[in-house]
Amino acid sequence: MGTVPRILVFFIVSSLVLAWLLLANTPRKSSLRFDPTFDPRKSWGAYTPFFPVHKYAPPPAGCQVIQVNILQRHGARFPTSGASINIVSAVQKLKNADAYTHPSMQFMSNFVYTLGTNDLVPFGARQSSDAGAITFKRYAHLFDANNIPFVRASSGTRVVDSATNWTEGFAAASHGVYRPPLSVILSEEGNDTLESHMCPNAGSSDPQTDEWLNVYAPAITTRLNSWAPGAKLTDHETHALISLCAFHTAALGNPTTPSPVCGLFTPSDFAGFDYSADLDKYYHTGYGASLGRVQGVGYANELLARLTGTPVRDNTQTNRTLDADPTTFPLNRTLYADFSHDNAMIACMSAIGLFRQPEALSTVEPDPQRTWHTHAMVPFSGRMVVEKLNCDETEFVRILVNDALQPLEFCGTGTGICTLEAFVQSQSYAQSDGDGDWDRCFR
User: Fold this and answer.
1) Per-domain residue ranges for the chain?
2) CATH class of the structural domain 45-77+120-199+296-443
3) Which site among 145, 208, 389, 437 is 20 to 30 Å from 28 CA-CA?
4) Which residues are marked as active site?
5) pLDDT lower than 50: segments of the chain
6) Residue range 110-132, pLDDT digits in tens
7) 3-state secondary structure of 143
């Protein structure tokens, strides 16, 4: 009888060790099986493909849209040249590994990295074209032969291409009746309200994203290195590999068929990556940066000029020569479409007052109740749309971000609509050129 307990103890301990080994070498996919709502494509931060956050809601009864202002990000692209460095390094380390000890890693033996840098991928071009078509269909009542969209773009190649793809999609949806040109290209070397580059003292979000990297990435790095002995990936390279999942999927052209790289990661991994993007935008050009939202003041003042039909009043990053000319900044159009970058759009949203958080985002513990989600704010081809409404002879404003109606608690009752007068009054930060923040950019 005395040997039975020892046998049981041996059996139990052996079983636990075996179970631990199996768990440590098994992709943690269980939450994907048991959570049918999880979609990794919506956990790629700023590299998320566009999706409507909510179904578009028509204006309230008795109201008609009389003007639309669109601020849209360029479509899906290749990695930037800077981001490519860690991606290429990580891929090369995995390909040079001594062996692969897990099935999820086997594809690497034949994987060839062929992505370009900076430019749109074909899927990104389609995103912008689709957006143009949607705009025509949604607001067709605003256009006639003498009133077609006025289109501007920041001068980055992928931004200009997105703008022209949008105009082509718009023209095609109108069966060729309306062909809006790209009327203004704002040089990114000069004053440009569609780019965030004019505040030398703005700083970066690196301290915050590095803190979070130290929280979320080490366990993933350890797992990947155990699956590819000898690879010796760093946490920064692990983060880059998760971004490769998004970039390679976009390059393949069908976001419903993910890259095999995506199979290396779990829902928890993607959530950690996604939150890194939240911190990046919040502490770069959002509320978490002392000189973040001032970089969106110029666009906010241009928006006020269009909504009120009055000249632009701004002493920040506007191109005052272009904005003073009715040819390059008309005030009589019913639809304006501006094409930009994600960092600039975050600054514009923050300058206006959207997505305020009750507390600054933590670098160690994400708040599940936060409303600051980069994937829902500035995905590839994401857009902020400001509609001006006429409701029984009174003008109102409402704002939609990727079709999600914003509450506008800063100028109304939080129901998503406020009078034009109240909206203009709420924009004191923009109208004061950032309450002194713009001056702090240079001293």
Assistant:
1) 45-77+120-199+296-443, 89-118+204-283
2) alpha beta
3) 208
4) 74, 342
5) 1-35
6) 999 999 999 999 999 999 999 99
7) coil
